[in-house]
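Journal club prep, notes for RB
We'll compare a predicted complex against what the paper describes. Inputs for the KG4 case:
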Amino acid sequence: ALPGPVLGIETSCDETAAALLAPDGTVLAEALWSQHEEHLPYAGVVPEIAARAHLARLPGMVRAVLEGQPAPAVVAATVGPGLIGGLVVGAGYAKGFALARGLPFVGINHLEAHALSARLPSLGSPPAFPYLTLLVSGGHCLLAETRGPGEHVLIGTTRDDAVGEAFDKVAKLLGLGWPGGPAIEVLAARGDPGRFPLPRPMLGRADCDFSFSGLKTAVATLVDDYPPGPLPEREAADLAASFQAAVAETLADRAARAMAGFLSRHGRASTLVVSGGVAANGAVRAALAEAASRAGFALAAPPARLCTDNAVMVAWAAIERLAAGFGADGMAIAPRPRWP
Ligand code: KG4
Ligand code: ZN
């Protein structure tokens, strides 16, 4: 076992986060700052602003997390994929911290952290390897078979937009705020999901890929039929509900395809783990739960605060990697904006 807690740091996109986890995965302290206010005027993440905000906030957040806690024995930070400025800030800070204290540094792949987050002991009954991971966020949209730390097989990915991106673009078309996913979910609750027959991209295809640009274009075409200016409330709600239903059905279909493939490869069912901001969506969760139960799979959908970007999953991924026998990374490990 590790001689002390693990400090985790996450700065790959627009969440600045630090967390301290005991060797058994217990969360001792965590801090998280979503930079929504900084990016709100631009209705999207501005990389330079994100990097500066990480730089401004991270040191104070790390200090707060360490206050009154046993000294960390390991330092971990996301080193990719993500926005290079933020990665440089987080990884650079973490390496400096590790160097100054003579601690090992572990560089974490953000996608692996999402994939392993469902195994946090505090969530109870951790899914056993191998399982399927569906990662649906603003930057990522993929299905992978998670076989263990360092062992991920990509099964499907998006051919155009990430699903969260589609939520954000449709929200913009409907005149809602940013980020758009939560606003669409609220509006959709008052709408009729059967009102507009929107396309279900990739439905029934043999592979496990995704595509959302056609769905977004279909919404844009419908919006264009109305006079300029805000849509009538009824239409906006029905459109939000119809869009959300199309996304939920598509994600469930892609996941069902992946589960069928898993069954034929392994001869038994497993768990479908879902992570990323879009996993916070109730309609998406309900559709995935139904698909999973039809396939005989368990569904593991961590609570929203663990689905969106956070540092708990980064520290946890380091614990998993070290337990699996991966050594610490040297100081030479460099941030990787792209990490296929
Ligand atoms: O994982 P995340 O916080 O950040 C990354 O992209 O890495 O995901 C953010 C994305 C945004 O596109 C946001 O609109 C979407 O997740 N999202 C939602 C919901 N909450 C966040 N989409 C649909 N329904 C939600 N309730
Ligand atoms: Zn993420």
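Talking point for the session: The mean pLDDT is 96.
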